[in-house]
Specification:
The protein has 97 residues and is α+β, with helices and mostly antiparallel strands. The protein is built from two helices and four strands; from the N terminus they run E-E-H-H-E-E. The chain has one domain. Strands 2-1-4-3 form a four-stranded antiparallel β-sheet. The two termini are 21 Å apart.
Length: 97
Amino acid sequence: MTPEILPPLSASLHVKPAGWRFGLRLWLPLFLLWLLLIPLLIVALPLLFLGSLIFRFNLWRSLRAANGVLAATRGTQVEVNNRESHVFIKLHGRDMP
């Protein structure tokens, strides 16, 4: 697979509650989540195929579009601030900065 079509492989989460000098940083391996979801997708494929026949949509194109949406989330950064805490989440692709 080319890197352009890969979903995010890891995420970093940084939480800093108010009053703490240092925050908590976690690295979350999302590739393990994708490995767990692959068998579910394989089980769901016959149902998706049946749905594509009934509702007349292109299954291959729909799967490629869903993968494109997942791949587009690479590099996403979410930052939430309030009085009690500061949360920062970043989704990483193939290379982690």
